[in-house]
Structure formats: structure tokens, C-alpha cells
Design a protein that fits this description.
The structure holds two protein chains of two kinds. Chain A is an alpha/beta fold. Chain A has helices at residues 23-26, 46-51, 82-90, 102-110, 120-132, 160-168, 174-178, 183-189, 192-195, and strands spanning 8-16, 67-70, 94-97, 115-117, 137-141, 146-149, 152-155. Chain A has a seven-stranded mixed β-sheet with strand order 4-3-2-1-5-6-7. Chain B is an alpha/beta fold. In chain B, the strands form five sheets. Chain B has a five-stranded parallel β-sheet. Chain B starts with a helix and ends with a helix. Classes of the chains: A alpha/beta, B alpha/beta. The interface between A and B is large, with 66 and 81 residues. Bound molecules: iron/sulfur cluster (SF4). The site of iron/sulfur cluster has 13 residues of chain B, from loops.
Chain lengths: 197, 467
């Protein structure tokens, strides 16, 4: 196991209720006007927070939380990695959700943030439980594909590829991809549009 | 055994199977723009790695550039800085760059096909979720995040899990006044905004077969709005005719050899799909979204649905949609008042889109209270449209004619909604805040419908104007 391995992530929860929360909502496009990732964490859910003083990201009770509990199709829309990056800088270390949009899921994995899908009823239960007791520790067990909170153990799902990457610590893929060496060029050469028709 | 285009392309680009079980997939064409690439180049510098195959990456500017005055330095200092970064990164890495002086600059998903860069049988990646657009040419094209942009720059590869394959068949014939945009909005309404998660969509059926390449680009463009990261149409004669003579397409005898290979990459007739869904194209009306995701749409003659009749998990989003938009359940969408009309974006900013919009605008006037802009998808589209006099038709009707870029699709430049303005937009997202105002409202529709909305100042059935 290396430092980067993500077998288990535990922390306090923060519920973000609702389905189809898109990445424009997580980080509006005007904050993408930057050539670095600096300060993105300050703008997580900025417009939603301004419009709704009760937004969970505004509530003192959830300060220091690290496990986001979302609904269905979380992170749909734009491929902007600024979205998971802003959540990460805010302090999010893992996301439990009803389901995830695919590019967002992949981006989270690339940043070492496990996303685990659980049944929607369990999402609603967990959001209520965290709401009642923001100090409760929520554990995302990547290896066993389960979420533990209070006395409950909730079965979850993380696709094999991402799970293996997270558990082994190989979620930063560049190094692994480089290991293929000149097999990369060999594959390219076999393609007629690379070698010439 | 019969195999699909997805199978064949995946297999041809597989470098190896990774320890995680994913595929190390070679990327044949990599497209980059100013918003999702600077951090990737920075990471590369930190790793002290060069761009592995600079000749397989192409750069353009689209998201942040102004569509009015384009003299450098840009009035917006951050836009200028992002442009400087991309220019420097492209130069230092020897990545070809279609900048403003190239005559070829434009929205990344418009210029790839237009230049003949995007071809059948390729894998195409771009740090942009609408990359499936290029699937219209029979490519496996998909959006990636910035860490993956870094991976492609450093290794020309990605770690990917192969998706399942769903065929989406649209048969019948489209009615007059119904376009590719209506077809994809109808597909997303039928299959849901997350119905395509884990799938590639293969669009097929007589309606798709008859579509021009530009219509197929519109169709594939919005795959991601239905949750599908990949969407494609099998290459056929329409594809080959479109590619012939384009600058980056093979030329002469090589073109004919390419056609043989391209045709061989299409799905075999007896391909087995993980799933097949069918739509009757003849039944599709002009579509308009009423809510806050692209699945919340109705035919222009329909009423806005009641959340109580929606499937349980969707009710909350329906209510949120109605509240944000200021609509009531049961209200007809026709007649909804419009403040802004935006004709543009990688969905609908190609020459055929502008022609249709101009034909509706011609001889009419934009309603007094409406500000309307037409933003061509690329410098080449602008040039071709101007050669036909479309810009004059638009101007005479009271539209602004702008320079190429993403513009009000996402409002990263000055083209933004103000306050609660309601826009009729040919783009692809009606998310809250998408068009630059946190309280702004977006109705998605086809270019013909948007032009009709401009003229009437309200949502109108364009079929009545086409009679
Ligand atoms: S036009 Fe809109 S959707 Fe298309 S690439 Fe630009 S910002 Fe993205």
C-alpha cells in the first residue's frame, strides 16, 4: 500500500440534496477563467450558496465535513475538472451518491476522490442521518464497496477499474500508462490513419 | 462474430489491458482549448515530460474569446492571459494551433470535422464534454477532464473502461420544421438525462441515415446531455462525401484507400447490442425545454408538465425547474416571453443552421424587446455565411452578427444573460446559471425555432411561419 491508496475514507458527512446537480452548479463557468487551480475551493456551489442561505455549504454544522452525500446523476454536464477540484479544495475526500455522471466520476477518480453509488433510499436515509447528527462519522470502504454510518452498513458499487485504481493507489494514471513504453508507438503505427493510407 | 464500430475501434486502439482491468487506449486525435488545458501543461512541466505526439494534438481558442472586438490584447485581462498561455504552450510543444489569425479558428467541435481532422475509425478525446460531436463521422469520441488531458499529452493514451452499446433507432421521416435538434431533444426526453450513463449510443434508423453530416453533428453533440459519454453514427457515403477534399482528409488515391478502411469500421449488420431503443421520427414535433436540464422538454404545442405526474425521483427537479423558470404546471410553452435569442454553439452554429435561421428571419424583424445574436461556429462558417449574404439578412432583421466562439452558450466572455432574462437558445444546456447569469433562464430549441422566437418575442411554432 502506498500513501495514495484509497482503501477507506472516513469523515463527517455533508448532504447535498436533489438530483441532477450539474457541474455548472458546482462551479460556475466564470471561475474557470484561470490558468491554475488556485482558490477554486472558495467558489464551490457559489451561486447556489448565495441564493440559498440554508445551503449545506453555508452551514456551520458541516464545516470540516469530508464525505459529500449526493442524489442521482451527480456531476452531470460539463467535463470541467474544476468541479471536483473545487470540492476537493473545500475538503471533500469521498462522495456517496445515488448515481454519478460518467465524466465527473472519472475526474474524481483521477483526483483520488472515491465516488460510491448506493441505492437512492439509502441516500435519503444517509442525508437525513447526517442532517440529524453532523458529527457522525461516515466511512466509505472502497475495497469492500460499502458505506458505514452509525450502526448501518450500506452496500455500494464502485466499478472494478476505478476501484482497483483507488485501492492500489494508481489513480494518477500517467505513470501506469507510461509503463507501456514503445508499445504505444507500435499501436499507433498499426493504424492506417497514423502510418498513412 | 459480428462486431460493432465500438468493438472495432476499441480493439484497434488497445495498447494493453491495465492492471486495473481498464484498457490502455491510444488516442488518435486530441483537441485542446484554452480552458481545460493550462493546468495539464503545467502538470507536464512539473513531471518534466514532453508532449509525446505533438502532431496528434490540435489547439484552438473558443471558450473565452470575445465575439465583438477581437484586437489583442483583449479588453478582458484574464481572457488575454489564457490566450497567451495557450499560445505559449502550443508553440513550446509544437502543437498546431488554429488561432485568430489562422482563418480556421472556431469552436473545437466545429473545426475538427470542418477541417477533416475528425475521421471515421478514430479515437478522439478533448477536454470538453461535447466531444461525442465528432462521433457523427464514425469515430469513438469522448470528453475528458484536465488530468486526462495531461495523460494524453504525456502518453497519447488514456485508461478507459469500455462502455456498453445501445442502439438508438429513429425511423420514419421528420415532418417539415423538425430538425436534428428536435430529434436529440426527443431522445433525451425519452431516455432520460442519465439514461446513457455507462453506454455509447449508436444512432441509426432511416431518419439518421438520411441526415446530412451537419445534422448528425448536432445529434451526436448532445449525447452527453442524455448521460452518454460516447455517441456515433456509422460511416456511410454521406460521411465520405463530406470528408472528400477537406484539408486534413487524405487526398487522391489515399482517399479511396481510406474509404475502404472507414467502411470496414462500421458496425456489422448482425451486431448484437446491449440494448436497443426505438423512436418514431414522424411523431417528433419542434421541441422546447421548459426546465433546468435538457430532458425537461415538451413539443411546442404541449403544456408544461405537472411534477405530480412525473416519476417520483424526478419530482423535486421538476419543481425546482418550474420555480427557477417562473412557469406554472399546465401552462402552454408557446407564448412564453423571450428577452434574448442566441443562435450559436457547437450544437447549432454551422452553415446549415445559419441558413435555416436566416430563412425564418428574412423579411421579418426581431421583436422590439429582444436582443438577438448570431454567433457562427468558426471563422470558416462565418466566411461561408457572409459569402451567401446571411449576415446581411440577419442584420436587416435586427440580429447582431458576431465573430466565432462559444459565446453565450456558457457566458465566459461578455455575452451573458442579465438578471432573470429568458433566452431562446440553440445551445445544449439549460442548467441554472449556464448562460452567465445565476438567475438567467434558458429555453433550448432548434435554430428555426429560435429565429421564430426572435421575431415574435415569444416561443412560437415555427411551422406556422414555414407554411
Ligand atoms: S459551444 Fe458551448 S457546449 Fe460547445 S464547446 Fe463551447 S461552451 Fe462547450
Amino acid at each position: 500500500m502506498t500513501d495514495s491508496a484509497r482503501r477507506q475514507v472516513a469523515g463527517r458527512g455533508i448532504p447535498v440534496p436533489g438530483n441532477d446537480i450539474d457541474t455548472d452548479r458546482i462551479i460556475p463557468a466564470r471561475f474557470l477563467k484561470t490558468v491554475t487551480n488556485e482558490g477554486l475551493g472558495l467558489h464551490a456551489f457559489e451561486d447556489a450558496r448565495k441564493q440559498d442561505p440554508e445551503h449545506p455549504f453555508n452551514q456551520k454544522a458541516y464545516e470540516g465535513a469530508s464525505i459529500l452525500v449526493a442524489g442521482l446523476n451527480f456531476g452531470c454536464g460539463s467535463s470541467r475538472e474544476h468541479a471536483p477540484e473545487s470540492l476537493k479544495q473545500w475538503g471533500i475526500r469521498a462522495i456517496v451518491g445515488g448515481s454519478f455522471a460518467e465524466i465527473f466520476f472519472g475526474n474524481c477518480t483521477m483526483l483520488g476522490i472515491p465516488c460510491i453509488a448506493i441505492d437512492n433510499e439509502d441516500v435519503l436515509w444517509l442525508q437525513r442521518a447526517v442532517g440529524r447528527d453532523p458529527k457522525m462519522i461516515v466511512t466509505v470502504d472502497v475495497e469492500k464497496q460499502e458505506v458505514r454510518a452509525g450502526d448501518r452498513v450500506i452496500k455500494g458499487r464502485i466499478p472494478d477499474g476505478a476501484r482497483n485504481q483507488l485501492v492500489s493507489g494508481a489513480w494518477n494514471a500517467t505513470g501506469v500508462l507510461l509503463e507501456a513504453g514503445d508499445r504505444i508507438e507500435a499501436t499507433a503505427k498499426r493504424l492506417p490513419y497514423v502510418s498513412g493510407f | 462474430m459480428a462486431s460493432s464500430l465500438l468493438d472495432k475501434v476499441w480493439e484497434a486502439h488497445t495498447v494493453r489491458t491495465l492492471p486495473s482491468g481498464q484498457t490502455q487506449l491510444l488516442i488518435g486525435l486530441h483537441l485542446i482549448h484554452e480552458v481545460t488545458s493550462p493546468q495539464a501543461f503545467q502538470a507536464l512541466r512539473e513531471m518534466k515530460r514532453p508532449v509525446r505526439m505533438p502532431e496528434r494534438t490540435f489547439a484552438t481558442l473558443d471558450h473565452i474569446i470575445p465575439t465583438t472586438a477581437q484586437a489583442r490584447p483583449f479588453a478582458d485581462a484574464v481572457a488575454e492571459e489564457m490566450t497567451v498561455h495557450l499560445t505559449r504552450n502550443a508553440e513550446q510543444s509544437r502543437v498546431p494551433f488554429f488561432d485568430l489569425s489562422s482563418g480556421k479558428q472556431g469552436i473545437v467541435h466545429v473545426i475538427g470535422p470542418e477541417l477533416g481532422l475528425s475521421q471515421p475509425g478514430m479515437t478522439i478525446a478533448c477536454g470538453d464534454s461535447h466531444t461525442a460531436t465528432h462521433g457523427a463521422l464514425g469515430a469513438i469520441a469522448f470528453g475528458i477532464g484536465t488530468s486526462q488531458v495531461r495523460d494524453v499529452l504525456a502518453t497519447q493514451c488514456l485508461a478507459m473502461a469500455k462502455p456498453k452499446l445501445r442502439q438508438v433507432r429513429v425511423d420514419g421521416a421528420l415532418a417539415k420544421g423538425v430538425y436534428a435538434k428536435d430529434v436529440i431533444l426527443a431522445i433525451i426526453r425519452a431516455l432520460g438525462v442519465n439514461g446513457g450513463v455507462g453506454y455509447a449510443y449508436e444512432y441509426a434508423g432511416s431518419v439518421v441515415d438520411r441526415m446530412t453530416m451537419e445534422e448528425r453533428l448536432t445529434l451526436c453533440n448532445m449525447s452527453i446531455e442524455g448521460g452518454a459519454r460516447f455517441g456515433y453514427v456509422n460511416p456511410d457515403q454521406t460521411t465520405f462525401d463530406y470528408l472528400r477534399g477537406r484539408p486534413y482528409a487524405p487526398q487522391g488515391a489515399a482517399f479511396d484507400r481510406a474509404v475502404t478502411w472507414w467502411a470496414s469500421m462500421a458496425s456489422d449488420p448482425d451486431t448484437r447490442y446491449d440494448d436497443v431503443k426505438r423512436l418514431d421520427g414522424s411523431a417528433i414535433p419542434p421541441m422546447v425545454t421548459w426546465g433546468i436540464n435538457p430532458g425537461q422538454s415538451v413539443g411546442v404545442g404541449e403544456r408544461i408538465p405537472d411534477p405530480e405526474n412525473a416519476p417520483e425521483p424526478e419530482r423535486a427537479t421538476y419543481r425546482e425547474g418550474l420555480a427557477h423558470m417562473g412557469f406554472k404546471a399546465g401552462q402552454p410553452i408557446a407564448g412564453a416571453k423571450i428577452d434574448v435569442v442566441f443562435i450559436g454553439s457547437c450544437t447549432n452554429s454551422r452553415l446549415s443552421d445559419l441558413r435555416v435561421a436566416a430563412s425564418v428571419a428574412k423579411g421579418n424583424r426581431v421583436a422590439k424587446h429582444v436582443r438577438a445574436l448570431v454567433v457562427p461556429g468558426s471563422q470558416q462558417v462565418a466566411k461561408a455565411a457572409e459569402a451567401e449574404g446571411l449576415h446581411e439578412i440577419f442584420r436587416e432583421a435586427g440580429f447582431e452578427w458576431r465573430n466565432a466562439g462559444c459565446s453565450m452558450c456558457l457566458g465566459m466572455n461578455d455575452d451573458k444573460l442579465r438578471g432573470r432574462e429568458m433566452s431562446a437558445s440553440t445551445s445544449n444546456r439549460n442548467f441554472i446559471g449556464r448562460q452567465g447569469s445565476p438567475t438567467g433562464r434558458t429555453l433550448l430549441m432548434s435554430p428555426a425555432m429560435a429565429a421564430a422566437a426572435a421575431v415574435h418575442g415569444a416561443v412560437t411554432d415555427v411551422r406556422e411561419m414555414l407554411r
